[in-house]
Amino acid sequence: MIKSWIPFAFCMIICTFSQFYTVYSATTQNPSTEIEFKLQATMLGYFAPDGTRNPTLKARKGDRVTITITNGETMTHDIAMEKLGIKSETILEEGATASVTFVASSDDTYFCSIPGHRAAGMVGEFILIEGNEEETNVKGITPQKDGKPLNLNFETGTLQDWSATGDAFANPIVTTDPSPVHAKEDQINFEGKNFVSSGGTVNYKQTGTLVSMTFEVTQPYASFMVSGGALADTRVEVVLAESEEVIYTSTGQGRATLQPVVVDLNEYLEQLIFIRIIDNETGISEIPYVAHDTWAHINFDNFEFHPNRPSFSNELKPEDIIILPPLDPVLNSGLSGIEAAKAMTPPEGFKITLAAAEPDVIRPISFTLDYRGRLWVVEGHTYPTPAPEGEGKDRILIFEDTDGDGILDSRKVFAEGLNLVSGIEVGMGGVWLGAAPYLLFIPADFENDRASGPPVKLLDGWGTDDTHEILNNLRWGPDGWLYGTHGVFTHSNVGKPGAPDSERTKINAGVWRYHPTRHEFEVFAEGSSNPWGIDFNSKGHPFITVCVIPHLYHVIQGARYQRQAGEHFNPHTYDDIKTIADHVHWVGDRGPHAGNFRSASAGGGHAHAGAMIYLGGDTWPEKYRDNIFMNNINGSRLNIDQLTREGSGYVATHQNDFMAMNDSWSQWLNFKYGPDGSVFAIDWYDQNQCHSPNPDVHDKSLGRIFKISHEDDQWVKVDLSKSSSVELANYQTHKNEWYAKQARTILQERGATPAARKVLQDILANDQKTSNRLRALWTLHVTNALSEDELRILMADSDEYLRSWAIQLETEDKTVSAETLKQFTALAKNDESALVRLYLTSAMLRLAPETRWEVLEALVQRSEDLDDHNLPLMLWYAVEPLADLDAERAVGLAEKAENPLILEYTLRKLEELKTTEASAVFQKHRNSLARSESHSNH
Q1: What is the C-alpha to C-alpha distance for residues 744 and 742, in angstroms, rounded to an integer?
Q2: CA distance 904 to 902
Q3: d(CA 505, CA 811)
Q4: Residues paired with 457 in a beta bridge
Q5: Sign of the CA dihedral running 177, 180, 182, 184
Q6: Each residue of 893-913: b (16+ CB within 10 Å) or e?
Q7: Coil, strand or helix: which one is 692?
Q8: Residues paired with residue 109 on neighbouring β-strands, in sequence order
Q9: CA distance 660 to 427
Q10: Phi/psi of residue 311, nearest 5 degrees
């Protein structure tokens, strides 16, 4: 489920306009002049009508200058002057205008002040000039053959000296401007009487090639004019005749105006070359809601030689062109469930089984597995529009494979009439549902598979602003809390029904958790975009997959992550933690949306759903274990990222995609392994891949469940509810994590007997595998069988994972004893593990600020964490409240920090607080810095 941008196609199709553009000429006699520059604003930059990207704007000192921008797309833009400190109003709609006016006094920089836009390339120079600046026409030399000039500018009005294939160049010569084959507002600005186009925006579906005859390179430089699509398959090539080596190539830049490019031919003097104009891009989108690309064409004019490198004011340079690769082939769409399973291409040794399909399951939006390996599936019939209270249409189905053939042959309806359900988990006496505006609990009679009471509203205040970004993906954490995710464009204020605002917690992006017996709610970490998948690795560390921004985050308690939009709730955050992935799954530099359906080579695109860290036994190859799977919706494929420990956290590296569905309607929303190690996946099968508040754009009759099985997987019939407490305790060493998780949840509800506790304590003390010891630790914790003394002993364990988890569990109730705090300080000073130091920092965020001083003073002096992915900012989040308590002491702590960021941010906060104490300390420190000769201090 991904965000629908309006219009979606603007990321791939940049509309142009024609405006008067004043270039100042110093030949004017007036001492000062009124000058207006008119530019089009797009995410690719500011464009002059002659095609120049981010042109250098020139004026004389004292001139009164106005820069007017017109929005070339539906996106927020403005224009600002860096030194002058002025900016225009912000515009959103395509065609809207805004201006800045100023008196030219010095060189300056103009840019877009919207966050991220300047970095994306919306920036240019404004310079002062003196004297006369005349623009001169650059005249070249027409190449010749046999003493006659070649028709490389089409001034003959024919294709003389050229040969064409395909239909794109059947009638390519255009003589008028505006052109009959381009949009009426497109200004071409061609040279002479004619230019050539492979179809313009009218006939963009045509393809073909136009090749010139060969001719000798007689000058060291050449130029030609080009415009049209910035697409890999719409291009002009200069080719060596003998070897057919392409020595130069250029596309257009997604605009109509012809611009000159310069070709350096010094290495090829006296050799034969030819020109090849290629249009292999039809522009036809096979994705139902993505518009055809009318820029799938190429325009060309006026190839000339030059004795010296020519200088053009509007030269099209390679760095100004952001090229998109060809559209990914869409092999299938609208398949039956059986055909869809056959179309998939799993790795060798695996098979795909259609486990269930419409009409038995429709619109599966979330699911989980119970202690018998059965699937509890939510049918999201209400989505995308919440129904009035009591009129919901969602329901919960229970599926089971009774004979091991991979087909879910048993189907029961557990509940109906539910509203906007987006997440489900089972255990602890019932069924837990994310159903905005509520977190619901339905008590269950699991013996008879029916509700034993009406739904209970545990929490309300969950937002429905954007119904594909509501609370979702409920999952039991190893610590016994119910975890879930939440999107950025929905704004929630969560609390118990009837609670006042003071007892509620705001969330609009991030990970939350709810304790099933203490009935406590908290935000675990904030930030990201629209996470629609969360899972835990063998060390109990959570990871989320997200859309639009980089796709993967290791989730740390109390952390703040990169956001797609909006601000962090704490205004003193200043910076946030970025993705752990060393890659993205989209191609090109135009942003994630522009890479949709063109990114198969990188993993398929930016939209992800589901998260599964595979821990399902040992029948699957080892390379899959403890690595994360996610579905790439745009790419219709399962991505895998390898998770490798580095510093306090992880680096995620892209692996070969697990498989392609080869079907543009495929939309796997989640997948989980079961007791036999095989994986079930739910498929919201729909031709529309984008969220829309309009319910009519989504299919209402389709849905599938698939099973991925390795040839070594062996079906088992199991019911862990019949196991004794000792048996459940022993399942904490099972090779398949499913058994350990289910057994732990049952013990959390049931309680552990003394014999079971003894088994768990023995595993914790003596097992050789870290993962088994951690499972025992978590199970002892959820059964309330750990004391503070036992956790303090574990803080001295030789295993960094055990020490880390002991710290987290010790701070569950947000208080610790003085003795534990003393031990925290010793760890902060001496522990060699960056992971332990991260958990200590995270723990400080849970404790009252006045108790943090000594621990944080030790942690900020650990120089080995300077370049860590997480610790610099996590330390700042923990240090930040100290400035409110004691400004002088906070600065003293910050001065001891190895990372100068701590001091910089502390002073920044003091300046922003504007209290008498904070202002005095800020001024005192600034004065001391002014007297200091230390470059590092400055």
Answers
A1: 5
A2: 6
A3: 20
A4: 440
A5: positive
A6: bbeebebebbbebbbebbeeb
A7: coil
A8: 125
A9: 33
A10: -120, 120
Which residue, chain included where needed, has tokens 């028709």? 151
One-letter amino acid at 699 equals: D
Spatial distance between the Cα atoms of 78 and 474, rounded to a whole number of angstroms: 41
The answer to whether residue 4 scores a pLDDT higher than 80 is no
Hey, what are 928's tokens? 């001391």
Instruction: Provide the edge-to-edge strand list for the sheet that holds 608-613.
Output: 608-613, 628-632, 637-646, 649-660
Residue 816, both tokens: 């610790």
End-to-end CA distance of the chain: 48
Kindly indicate the confidence band of residue 464, based on its pLDDT and cuts at 50, 70 and 90: very high
Longest dimension (CA), the chain: 103
pTM: 0.82
704-710 and 350-357 beta bridge pairing:
antiparallel
Q: How far apart are CA 568 and CA 558, in angstroms?
A: 13
Instruction: Give the DSSP per-residue string, 197-228.
Output: ESSTTTSTT--EEEEEPPEE--SSEEEEEEEE
- Nearest-angstrom CA–CA distance, 623 and 620: 8
For residue 747, the SS3 value is helix
The whole-angstrom separation of Cα 893 and Cα 914 is 20
- Where do we find the tokens 């202690």? 371
- Calculate helix-pair angle for 754-766, 770-782, nearest 10 degrees: 150
Q: Which among 228, 142, 144 is positioned nearest to 190, based on CA atoms?
A: 228
What is the rounded average pLDDT for all residues in the chain?
93
- Distance from C-alpha of 878 to C-alpha of 856, rounded to nearest angstrom: 8
75, two tokens: 């996106």
Q: Would you call the peptide bond into 346 cis, given omega within 30 degrees of 0 as the criterion? A: no
* 361 in Cβ contact with 701 (< 8 Å): no
Average pLDDT over residues 304-321: 92
Q: What are 172's two structure tokens? A: 């390519």
Question: DSSP strand E in 231-371: where?
Answer: 234-240, 246-250, 255-264, 272-279, 298-306, 350-357, 364-369
Q: Where are the alpha helices (DSSP H) in 56-129?
A: 117-120
Cα–Cα distance, 313 to 330 (Å, whole number): 42
Burial class (CB in 10 A: 0-12, 13-18, 19+), 291: middle
The closest of 281, 403, 279, 419 to 353, measured between CA atoms, is 403
What is the Cα 354 distance to its own chain's centre? 31
Place of tokens 């291409």: 345
Distance of CA 161 to the CA centre of its chain: 49
Residue 24 clears pLDDT 50, i.e. is over it: no
pLDDT, tens digit, 9 for 90 and up, residues 272-289: 999 999 999 999 876 665
CA dihedral 605, 324, 253, 117 (to 10 degrees): 30
Distance, in Å, from the CA atom of 452 to the CA atom of 470, rounded to the nearest integer, reads 27
pLDDT tens by residue, 563-597: 998 999 999 999 999 999 999 999 876 678 778 88
Of 313, 259, 399, the residue nearest 706 (C-alpha): 399
